């Protein structure tokens, strides 16, 4: 069975968040299964990876976007070092950028990617068994496959749409129709949602089946999906919740090259402290106090706007009995607030930016990982934290509620129902109390490390879905 994963991100080529981690790992695990050949197709980016690896041109052609004729090249990475074949679609001016997102003309960028992929497959007469589309950036593929005469060769190909984040739907004005490949106009309703072209809605309508990255998140979409609630209810028959796994080759405290001191569950209690000491020293924090960490995008869905108040109030309320470290970037107001607090409180440190190495060091050093998310379709941070013996302190939502159970119900994490400042601080104070009872804390560290979030089980579920 041949599966083509279509995505704007893939670790380690280009990463903004968890989408990259999933697309960089799932195909690798799928390729370990019998008779599965999974590949990744993504846009070309001007990033270190493309200069450090050798590519060959496997296709050269043209697509039309309105009046513009765009050159499309498909580049294949020659060595398969990632555990799967990697194809990158290059279109000068649109798909040769520094980053996946953040451009004014993103709609053109993503349209060109989807069109470029389908044009290549059609021209080369490649008919995969499954086109697996990730998020709205590839959400028009199921429609195009079925209703654009140009891609008639691909008609009938099964399409899976995975919703990693329903907050982003890629809505476009209907004017954009002039830049799409020609399609059967009687089918326009399959593109529309409330008067806009909505790629995520179109994906749900047109794909063979769609998945969310946890079961809990799928349930939530019925009641809160930025206007698509009724659609997901109507299409429930082809909806599946499949929890993400983690790449245990990359995220392994025993071998992780980004850590100062590697460890296993046998010596974690000693060695984790060494990592913590080093990190605390670098950031001017007291290593004897419990260390709470936050890693992530500064966005309201992550509850990052609550952090400044959580930081100063928790430090005050506990009379400085805890430390907090924050790594992230995003909303500039939050960035500025955090920088300000960095000067005021000795118990708080922040590093603004995207730093893969530092994130690994923090998972390995912190005692607790804070995730006050308002929306969390799956969340990978809590799983990385647990594998590194760090106790997750998380809101009860989406994938977090599927993966973290509170200690009061036999789990090994700390939950709060509502992501508000008071509830978060209450959970932190519960954490502080546990930290102060050495045996209880040690038990918690060890029980977190026992969780098995490896990809195998979920990869099986995807395979069963493809076969179905
Ligand atoms: P999302 O994709 O919504 O941002 P996930 O929990 O699925 O959330 O995945 C986030 C991924 O991005 C994790 O691998 C996390 O370690 C990483 N990450 C987020 N922010 C940063 C940062 N500032 N520096 C390094 N890694 C980060
Ligand atoms: C999205 C979600 C996150 C999920 C990730 C990978 O970015 O916000 O919760 O873990 O995709 O599926």
From TrEMBL:
Enzyme class label: transferase
InterPro entries: Glyco_trans_1, GS/SS, Starch_synth_cat_dom
Binding site for ADP-alpha-D-glucose: 15
Domain of life: Bacteria
Statement: the UniProt record of this protein carries the keyword Glycosyltransferase: yes
Keyword annotations: Glycogen biosynthesis, Glycosyltransferase, Transferase
Reaction equation(s) it catalyzes: [(1->4)-alpha-D-glucosyl](n) + ADP-alpha-D-glucose = [(1->4)-alpha-D-glucosyl](n+1) + ADP + H(+)
The Glycosyl transferase family domain, residue ranges: 281-410
Protein name per Swiss-Prot or TrEMBL: Glycogen synthase
Source organism (scientific name): Chryseobacterium aquaeductus
């Amino acid at each position: 069975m041949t599966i083509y994963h279509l995505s704007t991100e893939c670790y380690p080529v280009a990463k903004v968040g968890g989408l990259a981690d999933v697309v960089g790992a799932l195909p690798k695990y799928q390729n370990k299964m019998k008779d599965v050949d999974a590949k990744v197709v993504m846009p070309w980016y001007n990033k270190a990876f493309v200069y450090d690896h050798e590519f060959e041109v496997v296709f050269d052609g043209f697509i039309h976007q309105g009046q513009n004729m765009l050159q499309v090249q498909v580049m294949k990475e020659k060595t398969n070092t990632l555990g799967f074949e990697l194809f990158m679609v290059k279109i000068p001016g649109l798909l040769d950028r520094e980053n996946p997102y953040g451009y004014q003309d993103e709609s053109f960028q993503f349209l060109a990617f989807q069109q470029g992929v389908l044009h290549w497959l059609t021209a080369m007469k490649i008919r995969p068994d499954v086109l697996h589309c990730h998020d709205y950036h590839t959400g028009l593929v199921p429609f195009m496959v079925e209703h654009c005469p140009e891609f008639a060769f691909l008609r009938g190909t099964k399409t899976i749409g995975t919703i990693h984040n329903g907050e982003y739907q890629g809505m476009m004005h209907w004017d954009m129709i002039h830049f799409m490949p020609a399609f059967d106009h009687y089918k326009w309703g399959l593109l529309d949602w409330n008067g806009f072209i909505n790629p995520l809605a179109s994906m749900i309508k047109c794909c063979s089946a769609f998945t969310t990255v946890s079961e809990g998140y799928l349930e939530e979409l019925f009641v809160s999906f930025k206007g698509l609630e009724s659609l997901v209810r109507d299409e429930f028959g082809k909806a599946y919740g499949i929890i993400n796994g983690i790449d245990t080759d990359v995220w392994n405290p025993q071998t992780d090259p980004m850590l100062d001191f590697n460890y296993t569950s046998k010596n974690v209690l000693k060695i984790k402290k060494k990592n913590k000491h080093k990190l605390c020293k670098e950031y001017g924090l007291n290593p004897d106090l419990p260390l709470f960490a936050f890693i992530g995008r500064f966005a309201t869905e992550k509850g990052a706007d609550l952090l400044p108040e959580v930081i100063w109030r928790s430090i005050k309320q506990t009379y400085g009995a805890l430390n907090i470290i924050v790594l992230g970037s995003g909303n500039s107001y939050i960035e500025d607030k955090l920088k300000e607090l960095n000067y005021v409180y000795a118990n708080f440190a922040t590093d603004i930016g995207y730093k893969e190495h530092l994130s690994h060091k923090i998972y390995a050093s912190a005692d607790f990982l804070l995730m006050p998310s308002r929306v969390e379709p799956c969340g990978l941070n809590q799983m990385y934290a647990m594998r590194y013996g760090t106790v997750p302190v998380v809101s009860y939502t989406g994938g977090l509620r599927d993966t973290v159970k509170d200690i009061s119900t036999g789990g090994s994490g700390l939950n709060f129902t509502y992501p508000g400042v008071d509830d978060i601080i209450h959970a932190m104070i519960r954490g502080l109390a546990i930290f102060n009872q050495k045996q209880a804390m040690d038990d918690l560290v060890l029980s977190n490390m026992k969780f098995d979030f490896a990809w195998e089980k979920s990869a099986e579920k995807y395979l069963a879905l493809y076969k179905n």
